[in-house]
Amino acid sequence: MIVYLDLDGVLHHYDVYLDQRNRTILRGMGVLFEYASRLESILAPYPDAKIVLSTSWVRVKGFQYAADRLPDGLKSRVIGATWHSKVAADYQLLYWWLNHSTRYDQIARDVRRRMPDD
Fold it and tell me: Which branch of life, at top level (predicted)?
C-alpha cells in the first residue's frame, strides 16, 4: 500500500511559505507537523504501508529536506516523491507539471510508474 502524502493542509495548516532567508514558515494556526503523530497512529496497524511525498516541499526544498522534517515513524516509510529530477530536466514535462497538472495528475503519473498493489 502506498500513501501519497502532501504536507501542507495535512500535517499542519496549509499556509506555509519561505521567508527572505529561505526558511519554511507557517503563517496559519498551529505549528509545523503538528498532526504528524496522528498520521503515525493511523498507519501503525499497517506496517507495510509506504509513503510517497506529493508536496511542493520536494520541488522547492528538495526530497531529503522534506523527508527529514518528518518524525522517524513516518520518515522510515518514505520511498520517494512524485517530483524528481527527471521532471526538472525535461522542459515539456516541467512546463506541464508547473502549469497544467493537478495533484491528481501528478499522483496518477507516479502510480503508472510505480504500479503499486494498493
Answer: Bacteria
